[in-house]
Amino acid sequence: MIEQAVELIQTKYSKAKRDSLIPLLQDIQTLYGYLPKEVILEVNKRLGIPTSKIYGVASFYNQFRFQQIGKYHIQLCRGTACHVKGSKRLLDKVQKLLKIEPGQTTRDALFSLEIVACLGGCGLSPVIAVNGEFYARMTPKKTEELINSLRSGHEK
After folding, report:
1. Which of 16, 39, 87, 111 has its CB 3.0 to 4.6 Å from that of 70, i.e. a possible disulfide?
2. How far is CA 64 from CA 24, 54, 73, 118, 128, in A?
3. CA torsion angle for 82, 88, 90, 93 (degrees, to 10)?
4. Where are the domains of the chain?
5. Considering the entire predicted model, what is its pTM?
6. Which pLDDT tens digits describe the chain residue by residue (156 residues)?
């Protein structure tokens, strides 16, 4: 796992300093889908930036993840428009079906759940995104059908 990160650091960030930390973390997350602990330690070793600083920067920005996301990454909007139109009921349905909390991934690594402040689809609320694809005017029933469809598509 670490070999790809080492190669990335050596080729693209060989002369990197603190000002390159965010782009480096973005590239690492693109590579792995999250920021693995082992890779953070490698960044510390190679760039001489304390792990506390690396985690401090990464945890400040909500774009960074410390856990691997599922094959189907569900982002559930809890912005004002979606909240008013019932996104809490959607959240309850997803949690019940998948038996996970926001920020978690199912044991089979098929689904992960993230709460977001806004997906920018207020006129289509409530909105759920799965791997960046938007599903508008969702209901608990449509949410269950979506999850079941993703599950059955995975089984093929």
Report:
1. 111
2. 12, 11, 14, 17, 20
3. 180
4. 2-60, 72-155
5. 0.73
6. 677 777 777 777 767 677 788 888 999 898 888 899 999 998 888 888 899 999 999 988 878 888 888 999 999 999 999 999 999 999 999 999 999 999 899 999 999 999 998 998 899 999 999 998 999 999 999 999 999 999 988 654
